[in-house]
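ESCALATION

Customer reports they have been waiting on this structure for their group meeting. Please prioritize. Original submission:
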Amino acid sequence: MNAERRCDWCGTDPLYVKYHDEEWGVPVYDDHLLFAKLILDGAQAGLSWITILRKRDNYWQAFDNFDPEIIARYDETKIETLMQNPGIVRNRLKINAAVKNAKGFLAIQEKAGSFSQFLWDIVGGVPIQNSWDSMADIPAQTAVSQKMSKALKSYGFNFVGPTICYAFMQAAGFCNDHLVDCFRYAECRTLSGK
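Update from on-call: job pushed to the front of the queue and completed.
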């Protein structure tokens, strides 16, 4: 067992620990990966992240590798197929949201040129460096996540409320919300260039 201090939320589940140690809080700049992460965070609504993490590979397969051009064209037949897939969360609203979000993603790319640039501009271009001492200090949403939510909704996105957007911001490294005594805090701070 690694004796290094971690954020409490990942517990001891090896899958969760690996996600915490290697992915969570690492800045993401790739349009495609950001789109996938946003869809997965929307799928998490009302559930624990470990539930989605365990199904993540199934999502990549079921949703055509999160290709927004393909997802934007999903019809009722495809949605019904997804509703029968036990490897994902079978929630019609969330599946429909993925289709709407793919259309919004394409609209943002067309207007702004880059989904990544569009999102990173909202946080000022660099990861926000927080310094939380305990899980209780971390907010569920912030003024910036509210701004991101509003910006995405203006393009027709669903399942992008301020709380979902903040979870997405944390996961995709728009902010460094590792606790200050977590070994990943300094590592993620270095990745941000701060």
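Sent to customer with the following note: The domain at 8-191 is CATH 1.10.340.30 (Endonuclease III; domain 1).
Escalation resolved.
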